[in-house]
Amino acid sequence: MGNGSGLTRLVSSLITIPTTIVVILFAISNRGTVEVRLWPLPAEVDTPIYVLALVTLALGVLFGGVVAWLSGGAQRRRLRQAERRAARLETELSQTKSELKAARQTTDAGTNTGTNTGTNTGATPALPAPAKNMTRLAS
Question: pLDDT (tens digit, 9 = 90+) per residue, 110-120?
């Protein structure tokens, strides 16, 4: 695993362990009961204070996570589009490489049979010579 993974684990531990300790101490210190009523409903619930506080905290974290996830929708959409474009470009590059390889093999085959009159002696094959009797377009 890379250094980023170890650093992430360390930061996560430095946040999670103290938070867990604080939550446990809060629960131990606030065991008294409280009466909870929701105005339009006639029901009442007697619950320990720490349960009420922790449920409220959990709902807040959940709500915040949903809001953060929804706000990242546009960025995720752009990422998916970029991934599709990268895949398309990789396919196009692969096709172009295979076409170039085939063209080089054809040129090499022409060089070996003596049909190419170029003076290229290097590793790269010479391009075919342009046609000698090309007509120019009148302007």
Answer: 776 555 555 55
